[in-house]
């Protein structure tokens, strides 16, 4: 608005002699006009010359009297029109400063008779001081005497007013050309790039603050683990199916159908769709047989295996369900050794507490090759965990339905000063691998651990609910640093 007014005025007039008057006449705020002048001057649309004027502004006291009246008038009005008032009485009616100044000024003006009793000497008075103050406030000029009287009473102080006089500049145009910020396809096609004025780069401008993009600690640690697996030559398994059939999650892993983990107290079963649509029938047959009566040198479990149990859909309880699918797929081709890993979510129907959630992330690694031994497993675990910064390991015999032997992995935690359990591992059983059709001398070593545990240790979080779920403090996610694995 002010910009149009200034450029428009200069189209027909030589100059704007005083930006203050220019603003006042048009009802603009002078500060806005000054900003526009500075900007137009910068682009040389106009030439602006500083002008300065000494003006007067009201002090705090001056503003008070401009609103409430001068002390002498306030005092005069407090004295009754007829008769008199005692000085003490009068003092009580007024503010102490107003009383003090009022007495001396009203006395000087011969408005009142001052003694023990105070009475009026004139009928009416005019508040000249208030009028003058209002004039100063409204920017009107006062005479020298008027100024010096207000100044003497410290009701006004001088202030330098700054403004501009303005003429056309070398780039004058009645309307500002908007400088282009981008060279567009249209500019090139139409050829108007020749006339366009481009905005200059401002290398000092600050970039926009990044609004989001804070990685969750679990994602940061996952990335580092992924890198470790990749450096060790492992391939990532596709884990994008949270829903799995009991068959792949349990049966294929030689986990008997009466196993407590297959109870709804431990596993989330799906209501809809409650069963899987298809399973590889000939393989299902071999799995059924190995559960019921064994084979491959095993006695099996000796129970009646039920297809309905295997069909039940669930939220996978471990990523080993994916490993079983991947190994079965490997068995279908001429054998080639493989190293696989995955890091993804699993679900367990557990009571939630400081260390347990009903869903968490599992890190899983496996190596599949001919002639692998427990020594290979121990070696790979040492390699893997030392890359996480855990080089002191111990193993404890354990039990998994699908591995034999099985080992719990412990690592010495320097900070805690004790051995802590960090994972579970083992060699997949022949009852799992042979029905898949893998060659007899192919062995699979595997291990699993949670992603939450190392993340909590790295980030010093002692309640898992502070790390994952609806109670997470987003501020913590924004502030948390990168904590490097291996540097503990
Ligand atoms: N699936 C096991 C678990 O849920 C981890 C594991 C993976 C154990 C591979 C042995 C071999 O704890």
Q: Could you please describe the fold and organization of this structure?
A:
The two termini are about 60 Å apart. A seven-stranded mixed β-sheet has the order 7-10-11-15-14-13-12, with helices on both faces. Strand 12 and strand 13 (about 405-415) form a beta hairpin. Helix 4 packs across helix 8 (about 130-135) and helix 5 (about 70-80) crosses helix 7 (about 95-110). The longest helix is centred in the middle third of the chain and has 15 residues, at about 215-230. The chain is built from 19 helices and 15 strands. The chain is about 35% helix and about 20% strand. It is elongated. The chain has three domains: about 1-60 and about 135-170, Ribosomal Protein S8, Chain: A, domain 1 (2-Layer Sandwich); about 70-125, Arc Repressor Mutant, subunit A, CATH 1.10.10; about 220-480, Bira Bifunctional Protein, Domain 2 (BirA Bifunctional Protein, domain 2, 2-Layer Sandwich), CATH 3.30.930. The protein has about 500 residues and is of the alpha+beta class. The structure holds phenylalanine. Phenylalanine binds near residues 400 and 403. Phenylalanine binds near residues 320, 403, 424, 446 and 447.
